[in-house]
Amino acid sequence: MKPRECQARVAARRALTAEIVEVDLTMEDPPQFEFAAGQWISVPLSPKTVRAYTIASTPLEPRHLTLCADVAPGGPGSAWFRGLAPGDRVSFKGPLGGFVYSRGDARRPLFVAEEIGIVPIRSIVTWLYATGFGRPAALAYWARDPGWLVYDEEFRSLARRYPSFAYHPVVAESAATAVDRLTPSVEGLVAYVAGGGETINRVRDALMAKGLDRKAVKWEKFW
């Protein structure tokens, strides 16, 4: 799908925590926004300032998008996102990004998210199981404390409804340590890792130490 200039309006805003905000957009031009789960949009805040926001919703509702962002950094993007209110117009370009899952890939997916890195993975996992995926998959979702696991209950519910989906919230150890513990074998595995660069590198190293090919680790760096 070729990126294009788009217009939408804010339909709702929710503070999931003091530092994580969700915003629902209703498309205006085009009336529907086609994208792949895991992609993001680019928002121009000024002629020289652009910010990227990952889509938290799935492609199943192309007239509506949900964005989710950590506004703790306090920069211009954080201030803009925190200040959004229903009725505000949002101009953006998209879809962008290649952190997407191919249904034709027969390998067993392992998803690893660090805090706000859960956003593209939420879109991918929700979309997969809503569209009859049914195959085994696992998610290790790391946060500094339980309050940062903003989609925890959603994934617990998903795991109850789909026994093939294994959900592992992680707060007492590092993401890499958890992945090492939860992955006794990497045979037939493909990994999708999203979060900070340090966590991505450590998770990749842990999986490669078990024999996983470097190209079998897909990643999306947030900081």
How is this structure best summarized?
With 223 residues, the chain is an alpha/beta fold. 23% of the residues lie in helices and 36% in strands.
Describe the structure.
The protein is of the alpha/beta class. The chain folds into 2 domains: 4-96, Beta Barrel (Elongation Factor Tu (Ef-tu), domain 3); 108-221, Rossmann fold, CATH 3.40.50. Helix content is 23%, strand content 36%. Strands 4-3-6-1-2-5 form a 6-stranded antiparallel beta sheet, covered by helices on one side. A 5-stranded parallel beta sheet has the order 9-8-7-10-11, sandwiched between helices. β7 (108-114), α2 and β8 (137-142) form a beta-alpha-beta unit. α4 (175-182) packs parallel to α5. The radius of gyration is 17 Å and the shape is globular.
Order of helices and strands: EEEEEHEEHEHEHEHE
- The CATH topology of the largest domain is Rossmann fold
Q: Give the count of structural domains.
A: 2
Going by CATH, what is the homologous superfamily of the largest domain?
Nucleotide-binding domain of ferredoxin-NADP reductase (FNR) module
Shape: globular
List keywords for this structure.
single chain; alpha/beta; Elongation Factor Tu (Ef-tu), domain 3; Rossmann fold; 6-stranded antiparallel β-sheet; 5-stranded parallel β-sheet; 5 helices; 23% helix; globular
How would you summarize the topology of this molecule?
Blueprint: E1 4-15, E2 20-29, E3 40-46, E4 49-54, E5 64-70, H1 76-83, E6 89-96, E7 108-114, H2 118-130, E8 137-142, H3 152-161, E9 165-170, H4 175-182, E10 189-195, H5 197-209, E11 217-221
Parallel strand pairs: 7-8, 7-10, 8-9, 10-11
Antiparallel strand pairs: 1-2, 1-6, 2-5, 3-4, 3-6
Helix pairs in contact: 4-5
